[in-house]
Automatic annotation (TrEMBL):
Its main location: membrane. It is found in: Cell membrane. It comes from Novosphingobium resinovorum. Coiled coil: none annotated. Residues 325-508 form the Methanolan biosynthesis EpsI domain. Keywords: Cell membrane, Hydrolase, Membrane, Protease, Transmembrane, Transmembrane helix. This is Exosortase A.
Length: 521
């Protein structure tokens, strides 16, 4: 009897497969094969994304996205199977563009571009192998693929600042005397930090993913969809500020330890569920898509003249597969060739003498040492002038930029994660450098200003550094990268900026000074 049951359960999918047209069966096989090739050819990138989905709470919600994508396709399948898939050669342009995006990320060490590229290649296979009408029917699920990419950590500092401003405003409104300094709020009950984990970024990203899904599934009106999306951006930010204020308010009554303990219980997906439930409850009465309505307008897709015009570029499935393979091979070979580039660097570098300044022992109040993973050389020292100004100088020299050796990568530079130092606020820029104010153990302030030197580039912008690295790699040009960080403890307040400015005036041209240390000019 068990064999009969098994045979019956397998007969349904087999009959459904045989009922498909030859074009659909061939298209599904080719698409599945292309996706398997993408999975294994870029296994490192998929593995890195999967680890972020699993290990980083900001991206835990992404674990649900593959199931949501499957459901969206299943929802459209009754209309989809009535279309005829046809391979389409302009899909190779889309695939090449996605592969080029991955290539730029591979050349610059920018994981975001690499991961966005592999996800985009996944989507580009649909118009290439199944054609424009099927793509039009799947346009929303294909767009929803973007939520597979772990993005949003770049917003942490901005959200920390916004949350701190909301919190201090509510704290003052509730009659509690408080003083704000960057993301730190000092109250009678103690000093509170709006830390990275409290920025609310994970709830914002998850709410945006939910809002986009709900806007498509529950609404037909574009005005209502827009309002839904705006609510999914504004509500989690405001709710997070209210939560932070509630913790501070409770601490004034019950003590900081009790308030922090309650906050750790509430602050999590339980908090997200409450916010999500409130948004759904408010939006429910405005849902305007019929429950039994089709997910796509099949008649509009079948009768669209512009889609008929695009179908003139149809090709055979075999040609599409060959083109797919050539694009992937070209991207991988180009990346491999660029990754072997390395500029010559000296066997040894030293911090130079600076007129009016003397080298002294490096004895910070709280140990501070920037991170420069993958650098060929690192230097850290302290200078002092006759007026008592002290400046800490960190230099890192890289023969090349890439995976595991990124001067501007996450966790690299002046602020090392999980250290005694926390980001406090932006600091005034010095000659286009990136200024940051750091706080050590809640008591010692420090200003750090970062510059990057790559070829003719001198900037504190990580984005400009990445762009310069990409251009060099595309042209197979090897240039070393120098990272310079000038820092000083801000005691008394304002002293650090004065010390850094005075040191800069003594070094002369910053570009020539950095090139002299790296011995590249």
């Amino acid at each position: 009897m068990s064999l009969d049951v098994a045979s019956t359960s397998l007969a349904g999918p087999a009959r459904a497969w045989r009922a498909l047209s030859p074009q659909w069966r061939g298209g599904i096989i080719r698409l599945g094969a292309a996706w398997l090739v993408l999975l294994f050819a870029f296994l490192g990138d998929w593995g890195a994304m999967a680890r972020q989905w699993w290990d980083i709470s900001t991206y835990n919600h992404v674990l649900l996205i593959p199931a949501i994508l499957g459901w969206l396709v299943w929802q459209r399948w009754p209309q989809l199977e009535r279309l005829t898939p046809t391979a389409w050669w302009p899909g190779l342009i889309l695939l090449a563009g996605a592969a080029f995006l991955w290539l730029l990320g591979a050349m610059s060490g920018l994981d975001l571009a690499r991961q966005a590229g592999v996800v985009a290649m996944l989507g580009a296979c649909v118009p290439l192998i199944l054609g424009v009408r099927v793509t039009a029917a799947l346009i929303f699920p294909l767009g929803y693929l973007v939520f597979l990419v772990p993005i949003g950590e770049e917003l942490v500092n901005v959200l920390q600042t916004i949350t701190a401003e909301i919190t201090i405003a509510l704290t003052h409104l509730s009659g509690i005397p408080a003083r704000i300094d960057g993301v730190f709020i000092d109250t009678p009950a103690g000093l509170f930090e709006v830390a990275e984990a409290c920025s609310g970024v994970k709830f914002l990203i998850a709410m945006v993913a939910f809002g986009v899904l709900a806007a498509n599934v529950c609404f037909l009106s574009w005005r209502r969809r827009t309002v839904m999306l705006l609510a999914c951006v504004a509500v989690p930010i405001l709710a997070n500020g209210i939560r932070a204020w509630g913790t501070i308010y409770a601490a004034q009554i019950f003590g900081i330890e009790a308030a922090a303990g309650f906050d750790h219980i509430v602050y999590g997906w339980f908090f997200f569920a409450i916010v999500l439930a409130l948004v759904i409850a408010c939006a429910w009465r405005f849902f305007d898509r019929p429950l039994d309505g089709p997910a796509i307008d099949l008649a509009a897709i079948e009768n669209a003249g512009w889609l008929a015009g695009l179908e003139r570029f149809a090709i055979s499935g075999t040609v599409a597969v060959i083109g797919f393979a050539l694009v992937l091979i070209a991207a991988r070979c180009w990346a491999l060739a660029a990754d072997t580039l390395a500029a010559p660097v000296p066997a040894r570098i030293d911090l130079p003498a600076v007129e009016g300044w003397a080298r002294v022992d490096y004895t910070p109040t709280i140990w501070w040492e920037p991170r420069a993973q993958g650098a060929d050389h690192r230097l850290l020292g302290r200078y002092r002038d006759g007026r008592g100004h002290q400046v800490d100088v960190f230099v890192a020299l890289y023969a090349s930029q890439g995976e595991g050796r990124e001067a501007g990568g996450f966790g690299q530079g002046a602020l090392v994660p999980a250290s005694a130092w926390a980001w406090q606020s932006p600091a005034p820029s010095v000659e286009a450098g990136k200024g940051e104010r750091l706080l050590g153990n809640g008591r010692i302030e420090r200003i750090a200003v970062t510059w990057y030197r790559q070829g003719e580039l001198l900037s504190g912008s990580n984005a400009r550094l990445k762009l310069a690295v990409i251009v060099d790699h595309l042209l197979f040009r090897a240039e070393p990268t120098t990272m310079l960080i000038l820092s000083a403890e801000d005691t008394p307040p304002g002293r650090a900026e004065q010390s850094i400015t005075a040191f800069r005036a003594s070094t002369g041209s910053l570009a020539r000074w950095m090139d002299g240390i790296a011995q590249v000019r």
